[in-house]
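Hi, does anyone understand the following?
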Amino acid sequence: MDKVALVLGATGGIGGEVARVLLARGWKVKALHRSPDRAAKSGDGLQWVAGDAMHREDVVSAAQGVQLIVHAVNPPGYRNWGELVLPMLDNTIAAARAAGARILLPGTVYNYGPDAYLHITEDAPQRPLTRKGTIRAEMERRLKDCGLPVLIVRAGDFFGPDAGNNWFAQGLVKPGKPVTSISNPAAPGVGHQWAYLPDVAETMMRLLERGDALPLFACYHMQGHWDADGTQMVAAIAHAVGKPAMKAGAFPWWLVTVAAPFVTVFRELREMRYLWRQPVRMSNARLRATLGSEPHTPLDEAVRRTLQGQGCLSADAPVRTIRAA
């Protein structure tokens, strides 16, 4: 029997990464898009289907015959996030119910508010104080209550060659340009959790391959890359571009605050500032108990590939491995 998946958000970072891994594992992959001819790339292997994630009939129709729906769709540029995210999820739930499919949701640390600290487990109380965190927690509540097979993998801030909107590209470097400066949003000494997208997608795939051995509502945390003092990611970027002595400048939080009422992206960045002012770290103990280990690309390699994918570093740049002092 063919394994068929529907990916919502296949043009985004995590959606595209999961779609590629599914294809590599022998799945047939449908991808929903309002303009499928424009979204399709030659040789990408995806079956592009015309439709809108906001239209339930489009999602239900596209999901016919699938065993998995990857819900990785988000409003572009964070526009109308509060008005669109939950209706899109409800459409995915309806489509999964009609098809008898499992739902895969890429989760985040946003569910946890400033009261969370270190080694957060999957069942820890979720008390988000931000709008986006509240919506994320509600998404998971609806999935838990829907009675369908669900897999959620929560991870830190995404980075990767095709990561789309993320802190790495929006806060640390400028995509499409050689790295001449680095900004660091973190307060001095504060740790931060990162997740390399290819590792996230591989983790999801290994969990999916466990099939019915997973709980009906399966939720796991990734360790990813824990930057213990907020300087390791910056050092990896500087090393990758051959400028190990480059120091990071302070992220312009003042500008984000001033512009937030007028610029949607800045408003969203400011909302999550608490994640840079205190260490909020998820524990992957349950994941390791299930899989034995977590897929993990070394930080220097992950950063080099990310910079190359974002046009900040040439494809033939030499490999530089960070060595301990």
